[in-house]
């Protein structure tokens, strides 16, 4: 098992955002975390990355990393594509990409930059332009490229398709699939439930900070438990999930 999260809890003062949640991601697989706004999905990813304080045990590649700084977790092979992309608009596209490699001391950074430009030709053409020239979809690609520059074994992705046009949503999911085919494990938080379940092997549904359901995605898609666990009997959601 590449990532094992056991009994993780996150609180902000008196607000409990995540309670006693356990998830796992197998080497080379995709797992999806689903749930309504405020269910605790971002808090869970941030806790795994070490940017939010949490209780519980996080084990990565056989080591307990719960006490580690986020920088050390990056070096160990975890990278986060944060909610809202968070690229630096006043830096160039290339500088944004290089930020993802800030922990690395090896000599292959330039080669990896070339790989990113092969993967994202739109970024290559404008490598010396400021991040602010990019569309939302292109900024998402840059955020993913920046995370890949850390050479992760596990990529944590926080709502990568949020706010994007249908064309870019498809592009994001195609990219998720091809990165995974190349061996990268991915923990994917998504509002686009249907596409996330199609891409992932295992699915987790959070509700009010607690794990409401977990199963292989094939089972989840067949059963009504998903809609029940998700938001009760909301008919529009049911329609959206099974459409
Ligand atoms: N920095 C913070 N301080 C206080 N409360 C917070 C903070 N961040 C999140 N929360 C609260 O914790 C709960 C879980 O939030 P979180 O962002 O993890 O959920 P989410 O499922 O990612 O939601 P969204 O899809 O809206 O981002 C919510 O009740 C939220 O209001």
Question: Quick gist of this model?
Answer:
It is built from 11 helices and 10 strands. It has 243 residues and is an alpha/beta fold.
Please provide a written account of the structure.
This protein is of the alpha/beta class. It has one domain: P-loop containing nucleotide triphosphate hydrolases (Rossmann fold, 3-Layer(aba) Sandwich), CATH 3.40.50. Helix content is 40%, strand content 25%. The chain contains eleven helices and ten strands. Strands 6-7-8-3-9-10 form a six-stranded mixed beta sheet, with helices on both faces. A four-stranded antiparallel beta sheet has the order 2-1-4-5, covered by helices on one side. A hairpin with a 2-residue loop joins strand 4 and strand 5. Helix 3 packs parallel to helix 6. The longest helix has 16 residues. The mean pLDDT is 92.
The share of residues in helices is 25-40%
CATH architecture: 3-Layer(aba) Sandwich
Strand order of the largest sheet: 6-7-8-3-9-10
Number of strands: 10
Radius of gyration: 18 Å
What's the CATH topology name? Rossmann fold
Protein name: Amino acid/amide ABC transporter ATP-binding protein 2, HAAT family
Family: Belongs to the ABC transporter superfamily.
InterPro entries: AAA+_ATPase, ABC_transporter-like_ATP-bd, ABC_transporter-like_CS, BCAA_Transport_ATP-bd_LivF, P-loop_NTPase
Function: Involved in beta-(1-->2)glucan export. Transmembrane domains (TMD) form a pore in the inner membrane and the ATP-binding domain (NBD) is responsible for energy generation.
């Amino acid at each position: 098992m590449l990532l094992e999260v056991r009994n993780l809890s996150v609180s902000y003062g008196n607000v409990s955002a995540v309670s006693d949640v356990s998830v796992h991601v197998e080497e080379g697989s995709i797992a999806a975390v689903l749930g309504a706004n405020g269910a605790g999905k971002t808090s869970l990813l941030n806790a795994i990355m070490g940017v939010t304080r949490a209780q519980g045990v996080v084990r990565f590649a056989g080591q307990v990393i719960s006490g580690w700084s986020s920088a050390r977790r990056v070096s160990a092979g975890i990278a986060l594509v944060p909610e809202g992309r968070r690229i630096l608009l006043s830096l160039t596209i290339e500088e944004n990409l290089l930020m993802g490699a800030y922990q690395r001391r090896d000599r292959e950074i330039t080669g990896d930059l070339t790989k990113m430009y092969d993967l994202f030709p739109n970024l290559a053409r404008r490598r010396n332009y400021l991040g602010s020239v990019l569309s939302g979809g292109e900024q998402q690609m840059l955020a993913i490229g920046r995370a890949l520059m850390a050479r992760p074994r596990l990529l944590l992705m926080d709502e990568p398709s949020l706010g994007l046009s249908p064309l870019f949503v498809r592009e994001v999911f195609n990219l998720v699939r091809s990165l995974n085919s190349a061996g990268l494990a991915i923990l994917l938080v998504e509002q686009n439930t249907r596409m996330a379940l199609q891409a992932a092997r295992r699915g987790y549904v959070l509700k009010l900070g607690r794990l409401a359901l977990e199963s292989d995605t094939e089972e989840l898609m067949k059963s009504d438990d998903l809609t029940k666990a998700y938001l009760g009997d909301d008919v529009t959601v049911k329609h959206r999930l099974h459409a």
